[in-house]
Amino acid sequence: MEDRPEGPGLLRGGRVCRHVEMLCCWSDRMKPLSAKKRKTTLTGTFPDGPAGRPTVARTTPRRRKRTPEEVQEIFRRFHALAPEPKGELAYSNPFTLVVAVVLSAQSTDAGVNKATRALFQLADTPEKMVALGEENVRELIKTIGLYRNKAKNVILLSEKLIAEHGCEVPGDRDKLQSLPGVGRKTANVVLNIAFHQPTMAVDTHVFRVSHRLRLSKGSTPDAVECDLMRIVPESYLMHAHHWLILHGRYTCKAVKPLCGTCVVADLCFAKDKRA
């Protein structure tokens, strides 16, 4: 065996210790590991943390969960500020409510109300809407986003209400969500407002406020809805989503929130709010 340079594990005079000789024999039979694999293999030998990863000291405290008392206080203050909050979409019956909520997707309530003012004067029932026709509906709502697809859905849901529900809006979630253009959020709004059921419609405002107030850590609207339905006190559940929507729309805005006038500012620990 040829002499090897001295180093860790080697004896003076070029003689190799027994342990290194065994490794050298094995290395002749194996392909050399790539740098990436060699790094992974070595990292896996550290006993510091799970899976061989060295542990890192936590520099920030864990996010504390809301206590039931804090949740109660948040909604007590919302109730004191607005005991009977109302949605801002204009409607005259359950049918026009469904249509208004379908049209409100990715649009402002004010913009929808402007578009539906003339529409509902002409068609406030499924039969009248179908008689009006998709082309006329499209022309009346062209000021709001995605108006072509929304006009199509309004006609289709009107036809389905006539064919399957006797022109009446059903008070059942599954039946509502079977209507064209009606998703879970729309169904929750209709069930809450028209049928007085305690539901939680999670829009962009509810999602944002729920995270800032640490009412939920859910990454999807469904997850946030589940958290809110679980922690909001039953006595406040009927109006909870209205309070969160209005708070997010007028106070806890996405950009430049009005923290100085916020009724729950002392209970807010959010640090991600943009100035």
Brief summary of the model shown:
With 275 residues, this protein is mostly helical.
CATH T-level topology of the domain at 94-193: Endonuclease III, domain 1
C-alpha end-to-end distance: 71 Å
CATH C-level label of the domain at 94-193: Mainly Alpha
Q: Which CATH architecture of the domain at 94-193 would you pick?
A: Orthogonal Bundle
Strand content: under 5%
| Regions with little confidence, pLDDT below 50 for 5+ residues | 1-61
- SSE succession: HHHHHHHHHHHHH
- The CATH superfamily of the domain at 94-193 is identified as Hypothetical protein, domain 2
Detailed description of the structure:
With 275 residues, this protein is mainly α. Among the domains are: 86 residues, Orthogonal Bundle (Endonuclease Iii, domain 2); 100 residues, Hypothetical protein, domain 2 (Endonuclease III, domain 1). Helix content is 50%, strand content 0%. The protein is built from 13 helices and no strands. Helix 4 packs antiparallel against helix 10 and helix 11 crosses helix 13. The N and C termini lie far apart (71 Å). 28% of the residues are buried. The N terminus is likely disordered.
